[in-house]
From TrEMBL:
Keywords: Aminoacyl-tRNA synthetase, ATP-binding, Ligase, Nucleotide-binding, Protein biosynthesis. CDD domains: TrpRS_core. Signal peptide: none annotated. This is tryptophan--tRNA ligase. The keyword Ligase applies. It comes from Hydnum rufescens UP504. GO terms for cellular component: mitochondrial matrix. GO terms for molecular function: ATP binding; tryptophan-tRNA ligase activity. Belongs to the class-I aminoacyl-tRNA synthetase family. One of its GO terms (biological process) is mitochondrial tryptophanyl-tRNA aminoacylation. It is found in: Mitochondrion.
Length: 346
């Protein structure tokens, strides 16, 4: 049986990069479930506070993140949906793993270096240590599958190493963690304003990202303004034409039926399939085609989000029930781990 775990930070409404890079795969996995599989999806507030957050905004963002997961099709009858901070075992296991994680290893994490290029003594411990919390998130459920974007590969490798008996023996009798982490080979979706950066919730440029709640006219405007280049024609060339190539990937992914990322964004497939249609297209007509495909994919999500937002009581109830189910599993793991290391109940 598979145990699938993944998380999203409550740092704003999820964008097209989150959706195409990770969240659509969460739904795909749920849709292809066998009866013995377990799906655990979390809104990870403890990760969000590794950078400064406004408490009022964070409260709103937490609810919006969980609402977004319901809106894209995560079904609380089939998947456990919860707020990470409601299950204390995450922090408890993170401390235990933190006592085993080598600092040198954390120092080499590229995601950390990107956030703090010039690490100083003012750097916050939580930001530095968050891959350890991420390892705890995964190991608390002994997850066998962790569908995340490719930017998370290094963190999954740390998780796998912290789970090996030679380092931690945590958790005991734990073997099914895959030798190579389950990262879809999806290329990241890039910022519409600066294709050298990934599309991100925290970029100050609102036109750099398409939100799952954007209207068709928002989408059209943002795609029209997307930075491309002035070369002739529409060709797929991620190195020399990153802006156009990003739009091509978006077009292809939004048109693809929901399916595994193993095939969804294959570059060669993307370029050959679209070549015929786009041969001779102008930049304006190309952008219009991209905007139409994005609107068609996101429209139903936006409508479902609006419906659920009017029913906050339901969303809170899903979170409460999810936290109880998650706690049942995570507390068993933490009990086993504490026994193992000599901290079991006397
Ligand atoms: N641009 C992207 N392309 C593909 N996948 C992406 N992910 C994030 N950005 C892209 C994947 O989305 C999942 C959830 O992301 P997260 O909420 O944990 O935050 P993040 O990775 O730090 O991404 P953001 O959206 O840019 O948030 P902020 O601005 O708050 O840091 C992850 O699986 C991630 O890989």
């Amino acid at each position: 049986p598979r145990t699938v775990f993944s998380g999203i930070q409550p740092t704003g409404i999820p964008h097209l990069g989150n959706y195409l890079g990770a969240l659509s795969n969460w739904v795909h996995l749920q849709e292809t479930a066998r009866s013995e599989d377990t799906f655990i999806y979390s809104v990870v507030g403890l990760h969000a506070i590794t950078v400064s957050q406004d408490p009022t905004k964070l409260r709103r963002d937490r609810l919006d993140a969980l609402t977004s997961l319901l809106a894209i099709g995560i079904d609380p009858k089939r998947s456990i949906l919860f707020f990470q901070e409601d299950v204390q075992e995450h922090t408890e296991l993170a401390w235990i793993l933190g006592c085993l994680a080598p600092i040198g290893r954390l120092n080499r994490m590229t995601a950390y270096k990107a956030t703090s290029p010039e690490a100083s003594s003012d750097e916050r411990l939580g930001l530095f240590a968050y891959p350890v919390l991420q390892a705890a998130d995964i190991l608390a459920y002994k997850a066998t599958h962790v569908p995340v974007g490719e930017d998370q590969r290094q963190h999954l490798e740390l998780t796998r190493d912290l789970a090996t008996p030679s380092i931690s023996n945590v958790p005991p009798k734990y073997s099914p963690f895959p030798k190579t982490p389950q990262v879809p080979p999806t290329k990241r979706i890039l910022s519409l304003r600066d294709p050298s950066q990934k599309m991100s919730k925290s970029s100050p440029h609102v036109n750099s990202r398409i939100l799952l709640t954007d209207t068709s006219s928002d989408i059209m405007l943002k795609i029209r303004k997307a930075i491309t280049d002035s070369n002739f024609g529409i060709t797929y060339d991620p190195i020399n034409r990153p802006g156009i190539s990003n739009l091509l990937r978006i077009l292809h992914a939004c048109r693809a039926p929901m399916r595994s990322h193993d095939t969804a964004l294959e570059e060669s497939e993307a370029s050959t399939r679209l070549d015929d249609e786009l041969h001779g297209a102008t930049m304006a007509s190309f952008k219009e085609a991209v905007a139409d495909a994005v609107s068609a994919r996101i429209g139903p999500i936006r409508e479902e989000f609006a419906r659920l937002r009017a029913d906050e009581g339901y969303v809170r109830q899903v979170a409460r029930e999810g936290a109880n189910k998650a706690k049942d599993i995570a507390s068993r793991t933490v009990r086993e781990v504490k026994e193992r290391i000599g901290l079991g109940q006397l």
